[in-house]
Structures are given as structure tokens and as C-alpha cells.
Amino acid sequence: MLGWELPPHNSGGLGVACHQLCKALSRKNVEIEFVLPYQAHHDAQFMTITAAHPQGVATVLKSGIAYDSFKYIYHDGHEEWVDLYGQQQLYERAVAEMTLEKEFDIIHAHDWLTFRAGLRAKQLSDRPLIVHVHSIESDRAGGDGGNPLVREIESMGLLMADRVLAVSQHTKDAIIRDYRIPADKIDVVHNSIEKSDLPELVEQNVYTYLTALKSRGYKVVVNVGRLTVQKGLPNLLRAARLVVQKEPKTMFLIVGAGEQYNELMELAASLGIGANVLFTGFQRGQAWRDAFTVGDLFVMPSISEPFGLTPLEAIQYGTPSLISKQSGVSEVLLNCLKVDFWDVQEMANQIVSVVQNDVLHDSLRDNMLHEYRRLSWNDSVDKLFGIYQQHLPEKVAV
Amino acid sequence: MSKSIVLYLHVHQPYRVRHYTIFDAGNASNYFDAPYDGRESNERILHKVAEKSYLPTNQRLLELLHTHPEFRLSLSITGTVLEQLEKWSPDALKSFQDLVATGQVEIVAETYHHSLAFFYSRGEFETQVDMHRRKVQQLFGQTPQVFRNTELAYNNDLAYWADQAGFKGILAEGWDAVLGWRKPNYLYRPSYTQNIKLLLKNYKLSDDIAFRFGDHAWSEWPLTADKFTHWLNSDVDAQTYNLFMDYETFGEHQWHESGIFDFLNHLPEQWLRTPGNDFKTVSEAIDSFEPVDTLDVPQTVTWADTERDLSAWLGNSLQESSIKCLYALEQQILGSEDWALIEDWRRLQTSDHFYYMCTKWFNDGDIHAYFSPYESPYEAYMNFMNAYHDLRFRLIQKGIEV
Prior knowledge:
The structure holds two protein chains of two kinds.
Chain A: H1 13-26, E1 33-36, E2 48-51, E3 57-62, E4 70-74, E5 79-82, H2 84-101, E6 107-110, H3 115-125, E7 129-133, H4 137-140, H5 148-160, E8 163-166, H6 169-179, E9 186-188, H7 208-215, E10 219-224, H8 233-246, E11 250-255, H9 261-270, E12 277-281, H10 285-294, E13 297-300, H11 310-316, E14 321-324, E15 337-339, H12 344-356, H13 358-374, H14 378-391
Parallel strand pairs in A: 1-2, 6-7, 7-8, 8-9, 10-11, 10-13, 11-12, 13-14, 14-15
Antiparallel strand pairs in A: 3-4, 4-5
Helix pairs in contact in A: 2-3, 3-5, 8-12, 12-13
Chain B: E1 3-11, H1 42-67, E2 73-77, H2 79-88, H3 90-101, E3 105-107, H4 122-140, E4 146-147, H5 156-164, E5 169-173, H6 176-179, E6 187-190, E7 197-201, H7 203-210, H8 225-234, E8 240-246, H9 260-272, E9 277-279, H10 282-288, E10 294-295, H11 311-314, H12 317-328, H13 330-336, H14 339-347, H15 351-355, H16 364-371, H17 377-397
Parallel strand pairs in B: 1-2, 1-8, 1-9, 2-3, 4-5, 5-7, 6-10
Antiparallel strand pairs in B: 6-7
Helix pairs in contact in B: 1-3, 1-9, 2-3, 8-9, 12-17, 13-14
């Protein structure tokens, strides 16, 4: 498998989805070698994790999250910072070298960053290539076309692949729309969530202030995610203004970082709700999971969300969700509120309903929890296993 | 005709807010206690400024005051810096007291917390002016007679207030848009007032010292006391040259290496060489001259940036929203009668906090970035708002509705 990130060195859902998918696949005795572009420690006994280094490079270090630069340290001691685009080209070169040495049956490549490497490996080994689309460029660009260099790679990868996997019908439709790939070449393999991977809750919530406000009748609306155009947060803030007019004791907790961070802060201030919106920056661990527990409602207002794991993470901490209809997860979940990402009025309306109405809140929570308990990776992995077998009737090892 | 230099220096340090997160809110209320080696450490910054600026400058000023009995100086020193000097640099405080003890130095009135309270709460503003007066009386044995508002933020309303409050003079920026064809080198009477007189900063001459002195690209560089007094002497009918600037110009904004201390050393001697020239404190200037005209300033004028308005503090939505939030708590905070809480609220009113949130990054922005301990205006906003949320938390703990 060719991948770009795994927890805990992940920037978001891509790494989590890869990790959980592989873990579930390993239970079907699929042997996986997961090739990453950097060196780091990962806690994953169920597969082999390899760092792909181009020739002459001693080690590759990640500076932060997936979309940041990488630092290459060469055997001769010199160092070089490489941007994302250059990085995926170097990764391709390294995977090409590796292809000549390794034994494998199927190439499974996750998202455009690994597509060139996947194509090269297919060319050199003549093994089938399955490309797995967790998001496409027009999702990440918030509806616009996005970066033409990235689109070129996506287009080529999708055309040349033997099979295309999409994490939702929403994504499959987008692939057909943007790249004219025949529908019967694409399978939808929905993401899911691995319940045993949940971090344990500690009794004392780190959001002391919000907890105190809640005891005074305040309600908390939470969003967790990258603050990037795709995620649609300006609309949530515009809805927040309407909510606060109706229900002044509503706080909005925005957990995450991204290029819209400063813009959102200014927007909240200029909408006159600076005191109602809290920004925490990027969080992991307790501050991350306590954000879900402190919330009365989780909102995912994404403009285009290929899947969207966070509502599932929210409900496992007992917080119901309002999600945009333009998300893959809305295909899977029934017991949650759904709204068009652009319908600020309706978004506000639904938030106010939950904030004012404990019965609505509790029934959403209980029913969604019930639905969540039945979710697992098993169905998706069964489907994927079948696809592997179609491409390789004899022995399966990836 | 006799001409006077009115040299007035402004001494101020805020209580900078440390890196303060939402996870601190409700758990620790020590907003102003950054670790000593942190960028926002008030104690470390005060030590640095005392060493680079206050101590060496005061030593020279004291010598000058002794050598030239005609030398005069006016100072405004905020309550927040006086407290910090008491705590962390008693030597520097003593050196200010020594200056005032010569009888040649006058202290100017202002708000204790260097706040913009005048524009948000008249009651709170008057309390802070009163607090400052008492602090000055306690430490210097003087009662200020002349008022300056934070950042020289001035308009007709302020002049009217200061006149009613019994001040005999008030300071403002001698900004062209206000003066028109007139010069700042005379006394004026603010519109709608009876007794108070207005002294206007000569910003060209003041900024030659405060901003351009060390600039090698400036056509007049290097500026000597000789050249400077020559400029002043060549204007035949001026009354006062009002040189207003940050005290930290000496040794901090203009480093020792720029020659700023040599300039200061020679200025009195060069100026007093011409018969009829003298130095005056702000009160002496007000007592000696009569207003030549009335000055109408309906809109607020400050001494900052090319706009000379409040936009450096209140120009963007972050600044406007955060200051409104802060003053909206006034009733509950004062009602709590918790003096530690009230004091923290007042420290957050210091105008510097809003200055750090300024997003005018170009031109003037250079100056802003120089003075800010934060990486960005957004970081400043977040720290501030999280401290604000903690104030609310403390009110809630007391059972006060917010």
C-alpha cells in the first residue's frame, strides 16, 4: 500500500482511515506493506511500515502535518527542504527503486500524492493498480477546480488504474463529474470507525471555562477539523450570528488550525460574536476528545466532504451532529441533522432547535449512538477483499 | 523674542498578556505572568528597558538639570510602569524621583492604566485619572496640573472635560489636518472651553529625534544638537517648540550606538547659547503665553501612524470587538468589589493590548511589529480574549450573571 500519513503523524482523516482500514484488512490475513514518505515511529503491529527514501537520502523528517514541507537529510550530510509537490515526485522515485526489490501482488494507492508512485510501480512490476480516493482536488479547493498540476495527476491516476475506490457515493459522483471516469470502474467503499481505537476519557474536562458556563445554562456548539475552505466554516460563523441573536447563551468552540484561521477570527469579530466563538488551535489527545464531550452539538458544515469521520467521533463521546448534505458520511448516517452547506438560515434554525430543546438533543444522541454501535469496517473490508480477489484469483497479499 | 523648548517624555510599560489559552481560562488567572525568559515577560522587558534606557538616560538628565539650572523637562509616567518599577527596578524608580526632586521636572496627568476609557466609560476614565493623581502624589509629591490622554487621543469633548475637571492645560498632536495653515508652535484655546490651554506637539521636529534620528537613509542624517537648534532658531516668530515623544526614544527606540545620548547631552547647551532661548515645563509654558487662536477638533486625533486617528487601536474588527467585550463587563466587575478582579480588568484596558492586534502591516505596521511581543495580531487577540473569558469565569464563580 502506498500512503502519505498514519497516526499519530497525521493531519486529519486520511491517516486515520488508512490505519483502520489496514487493521481490519489484516484480520482477513491480508499481508500489507505500507510505504510512507517519511521515517517515524508508528504503533501498528498488524502490518509492515516502510519509509521510501530516494537514493542518497539517509532520512526524511516531517516538519508537521501532511501538507507541510519535508526535510531530506542525505548520506553526505547535506540537508534540503522539499515542498509537497517535489516531495511526491521524490516519493515516486523511491517507490520505483523499491518496486524492483519487493514481492507483492497488488498496488493500492491512497490519494493523489501517491498516484505517480503507484503508476510507476505498475509500469515496472505489471501488477494491478487500485487507486483509493479519499478526496479529490475540487473537494479540497472548496468547489473550484483547484490546482491544475494536482488535477493532472488525479486524472492520470484514475484513467490508468485498474480499479478506483471512492470513500462515498458523493466522491464517486465527483470523480465521474470531474474526470469522466466510467461509473462501473468505481466502487464505493465507505469509511467506518474502529471502536476499540477510542482514547479513554479522563474525568476532568480540560474546558473548565465552558463547563462552568454550561452549569449556568450555556450550550456549546463544536467543530473539529482543519480550518480550510473545504470545511465551510465561514457559513457556520454566519449561522452562529443568527443563533446568538436568538440564544445569546450559546458558545461556539472551533478546534483546529489551517489557512483560514486568521480569517475566521476576524469574521467572528466583525459579525459581533467575538465573545461567543473560542478558537483553540490544533489539538490532540485530551483537548481534542474533550472538545467532543463538552459540546451539545457537533456541526460539520463542509462544502464538500468526501467522507467526514468527525461526526462519528463526536457521537462516540455522546454528542449528536448536524452535518452538511454535501458529505459522504451523510450517506451512512440516518439519525443526525442534515443541512445544505450554503443554507445559513436553516443551519441556524437547526442549531437553535437543538440548543433550546433537550428532548430533541437527547433523542438525536440516543438514536445516533444506537446506529453508531452497529457500524464497523467489516462490510467495507469484505467488499474490498472481494475486489482484491477479482484482480488476483490466486493468493492475496498487498 | 524669547523662544522655549517644551520637552515632554512619556514613560509607559503595559502588563503584557502571556500565552494564555482557553485551557488556562477557569484554571489560572495569572494572565500577566509569562515565564521570565518568555517574549511576553513583563519583568524581563522592564529590566531590559531600565538598563538600556531609564537608568542611563536619567543619569544624563540629572547631570543636565544640575549643570543647566534653566533646563526643564516634563514627564508622564503611567501607573502600570510605576508599579513595575516599584516591584522590579527600585533603582530606576529612584532615578525618576531624583529628577523630580530637582524642582525642574513636572509630571503630567493621565489615566493610571494608559487606557482608552475616555471613549468607552466616563466613570471608569475619571477613576483612572484619579488613581494616577494619587500615585503621583505618593511617589513624587506633585499634583499634576496638565492632562494628556492615552496616545494623545484628543477631541473637543476631552478638552471640555479637562477644563471642567480643573486642569489648566492639555496636550495634543499638532496635526496638519487640524491646524490647517497654522503652526503648532503657539498656545491655543480648545473650542467650547473657558480656561484651559492647548499645547500641540511639533511632530516634524519631535519625529526627527524619535523616529528619524538613527536612520542613515534620512537626508539630514546625522542629526546633531547644533544643526537641530539652528533649525529652531531660524523660525523667527515661534513661541514654543513642543517636543513630545516616548521616553524610551533614548536608549531603546534609538540605541546608544546611534549617538542619541550625545545629542541629548548637547541640546541644552546649544539651545541656551542664544540669548532669549529657554526651556519650559508644560505648566510654565501655559503660564507664560496666551492662546493665539481657538482650535476646533470634533474628531479624535492621536499621535500614531499616518492617519493620526485611533485606527491603530480600534481600526479592525478584532480590536473593536474585544474592547467592547471588555467594557461590557464594567458593571459586573465593579459590582463584584473583588479588587484583584477589578485590577486585572483594568490592566486589560491598557491600549497596548489593542495595538498588538493591529493588522495595518505595511509602513506603520513595521512600528507595530517592533513593539509587539506576539507573532501575529491574531495571537494577541486570542490571548486577550481567553483572559477576557477567564474574567467572566471569575464572575460566574461569584454567582454574578454574565
